[in-house]
Amino acid sequence: MLNRIKQFYNNSTLATKIRYSYLVLLVPIVLFLIFCFYNLWSLNRNYENMINSTSVASEFSLDFKKDFDYETYLLIVENKTIGESNLNGMLDEANRIVNGLEELTNLPENVNRLNSAKKYLTNLNIYTDRIMQNLREGNKYEENIEIWENDVQIVTSLLRETIFEYIYYEIRDIQRSREEYQNFFMSMIRFSIFVSAGIILLITFLSYYIPLSITRPIRTLIDVTDQVAKGDLSVRSDVRTGVEASALSDSLNTMIDKINELLNQVTKEQIRIRKAEFQLLQSQINPHFLYNTLDAIVWLAEAGEQKKVVSMVGSLSEFFRTSLNQGKDIIPIKEELQHVRSYLEIQQVRYQDILKYEIHVPEELDSRLIPKITIQPLVENALYHGIKNKRGFGRIVIRGSMSEDFFTIQIEDNGIGISPERLRQLQDGIRRKIATANDIYGLYNVNERIRLNFGEDYGISIQSTYREGTVVSIRLPYEDEDETAVHPHQV
Questions:
Q1: Which of 69, 238, 314, 353 is exposed most, by the fewest CB atoms within 10 A?
Q2: Residue ranges of E strands in 302-372
Q3: Is 147 exposed, middle or buried, given 0-12, 13-18 or 19+ CB atoms closer than 10 A?
Q4: Can you say whether the dihedral through the CA atoms of 411, 414, 415, 421 is positive or negative?
Q5: Pairing state of beta strands 355-360 and 369-371?
C-alpha cells in the first residue's frame, strides 16, 4: 500500500504534489481543532444544563411549599372556592418542572429523587381531591384541617427536602464537572503542546521532503545538461518522478539524440566541403592555363629566351608547390603571396603587353594565417573579368592594411569594373550565401572557406565602379602559426 502511494505521488504533477502537501498539513490541524471544539462544546453544554437544572430546582423548592400550603389553607377555610383555587394549576406546573428536570440531569441518584418528587406530587393531588370532596359534602372542616396538617404539609416538606437534595447533588456535580473541566483544560494544553510539536515535526519533514522530491529531478536534469554543455553527448537522463520532470527528461534525451544526428551531419558536411575544396583546388590548376603556359615556355625556348624560360618554369613549379603544400588548408600570408606572385609572373609573361602587378603587404603580416588559394582566385577574376575586357594597359595591386582587431588584404584592378546591377547581385549572393551562377561560385567558395575557418565576422567584400575598376577586400583575424591572436602593436 505504501509503495502504491509513493508511486502515485512520484507520478503526480508538480501542482498536484503541492496540493497534497497542503492537504497533509491541513488535515491534522483541522482534526485537532474539531476535537478541541467538540469537547469544549460538550463540556459547556453539560455545565449549562446543570446550572439551568439547579436554578429551576431552586425556584421550585423556595416557592412551592409556602404557596401550596397557603393555597390549601385558603380553600379549607373557604376563603376561596374550589373554582377559584389554583391548587390543580400549581400541581400541573410542578409536574411540568419535575419532568423538565429529568431532561437536564445526568445523575442517576437525582433521577430517583425526581421519581420520588413525582410520587409526592401524586399524593398531593390525592389529598387536594379529598379536601375538595369534603368541601362539597360540607361539615368536614376538622377532617380537612387534619389532612392539611398531617398529610399536605408533611408531603410538601418531603418534596422540598427532595428538591434540596437534588440541588445539593447537582451543585456537587457542578463542582466535579468544574474540576473535570479544569483537568480537561490542562490535558488539552498538554495535548495541544504534543500535537503542535507533532505538526511542527510533520511540517519540518514535509518542507524538506516535498521540495526535495520536486528539486531532485531538476538537479538531475541540470547535471545532465552540464555534461552535455561540456561536450559529453553519451549521457542520458532517466528521471521518472513527476509528470513535468519526466516529460522534460524525455525531451532532453531527444534533444541530445538530435544533437548527435546534427553533429554526424556536420561531420559529413565537413567531409563534403573538404571534397569540394579539393575539387576547387584541382579546378584552379586549369588545363588551359597549363597548356598556355607550356606553349609560352616552348615559344620562349624557340626564341632563345633561356632566362625567361628558366624564370617561367621556376614560377610554374613554385605555383604547383604552393597549391599542393603537403595538404595544409591554412598557410601563412607569406606563402600565399608567393603562390600569387608565381601565378602573376607566369601571366605577365603571357600578357606582358597589357599586365602589370604590384604587391604591397607589410612584413608584419607574413606569419598571419589565411586559407590556402584565397588570393589567387580573386586575382584570376581581376585578370580575366576585369583587365582582359578593357582596352589598354592593365594593373593589379595587392595591398595589406592593419586595424586594431583585424587586417585586410585588398586586390585592386583598373579593369572594366562591374555594373551596379551586377554588383548588387554579387554582393547579395555573398551575403546570403547563395551561389547563383558559375562566375560567383569562386567568390562564394573563397568567402565560405574564410568563414568556416575564422567565423562569420570575416570574409570578402566587393566594391566596384563601372569602367574604372574593382576592389575585393579580404578581412581576416590576427592569427599566426601558433593560433595565437596578436594585436598589431605586439607584432
A1: 353
A2: 330-332, 355-360, 369-371
A3: buried
A4: positive
A5: unpaired
For all residues of the chain together, what is the average pLDDT? 79
Distance CA 379, CA 344 (A): 8
How is 254-298 classified by DSSP, letter by letter?
A: HHHHHHHHHHHHHHHHHHHHHHHHHHHHHHHS-HHHHHHHHHHHH
Q: How far apart are the first and last CA of the chain?
A: 76
> Residue 107: which residues within 8 A CB-CB, separation 6 or more?
169, 170, 173
CB 312 within 8 A of CB 299: no
pLDDT confidence bin for 489, thresholds 50/70/90 = very low
The pTM score is 0.46
Query: Residue 229 is which amino acid?
Result: A
Least confident segment among 151-155, 318-322, 331-335 = 318-322
Please name which of 333, 435, 347 lies closest in space to residue 386, comparing C-alpha atoms.
347
For residue 483, the one-letter residue type is: E
For residue 266, give the C-alpha cell.
Answer: 556536420
Contact 127, 147 (CB under 8 A): yes
Separation of alpha carbons 476 and 451, rounded Å: 9
Beta-ladder partners of 331: 370
455 grid coordinates: 567565423
138 grid coordinates: 360540607
